[in-house]
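re: ur question from earlier - yeah i can do the single chain one, its not a big deal. heres the input i used so u can compare w yours
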Amino acid sequence: MNQFLRDLSPAHQVAALFLLVFGVLAIVSTVTFLISLRERRNAMHSESWRRELKVFQQLLSTTWFMVVMFWIGWALGEGVATLLFALISFLALREFITLSPTRRGDHRSLILAFFVVLPIQFILVATARFDLFTVFIPVYVFLAIPVVSALSNDPHQFLERNAKLQWGITVCVYGMSHVPALLLLSFPGFEGKSAFLVFFLVFVVQTCMVVQHLIARRFAYSPLDAGPRMWRWLQREPFAPNVSRSFNWVSWAVGMAIASVVGALMSFITPFGYGQALAMSLIACVAGSMGHLVMKALKRDRGIPNWGPKGMGVTGANGLLDRVDALCFAAPVFFHSVRWYFGV
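and the output i got, formated as tokens:
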């Protein structure tokens, strides 16, 4: 079987990988649907169990979204993939800005962000001008946005307004633009297989987030609950309860460890050795999980549970930023770590 897969062309190997992932997701989704159907007809579990099932269904739908998105990007080629990520970046930035108060004096800066900065950033990615695309937003846009804002003659909360906009551009445009950039990295002997690199990044980060979340939910902290020793070890008080009720160092460490091992086991689909895949997974998971926590703090500051409240899509993107926020932080750190270490 191993030899059969090795004999396939790079395109067929990627297609086989997606087929395997879609198959696993279809089986898990079917089982979850049947369980929820049975529960609706004849409730056999408590309310908290049904809430956990609902959370798991949401995580499953997020995983479907991510896999389908990358399958479309791979199937339609690098150019279309870059365009697809540019569209996702546009919608995510729109979501971010919609929930960040702006004034009339910000209109020119917003036009600059959406219709100049974003297209230029992804054009730089598509043309593989990595030296320029890595500094375009942190250097040039960082200076250009406040200059345009100052020309609008509105000094009211000038620093706060510009900081919010720059923050949104950095996370939604700069961070997301590094995902299609991975497709253009050129490893000797790895030609035509860059989609594996994107899949690797998404899979390990998503695994870390799911494991961390499930452990935190399953072993929720309760000072009156004295269960088995292992149970008490996992049952830790939230570290930053005002930001996240589910984040504690134990669940975070377990999520990191499992995702890193999963990444190491997937080293055969990457240009990395076993130890290198383990290290790269660890780097991506740290960046992704910490970024997700930061985005939660932003949501608490805005007074919202999700970027698309209750799935109603009031921002026009239906909580898209909730699905990609960890990736926006993990992608640039992963990309630059790979380039620095492997010199590609």
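Residues 310-317 have pLDDT under 50 and may be disordered. not sure if urs matches, ping me
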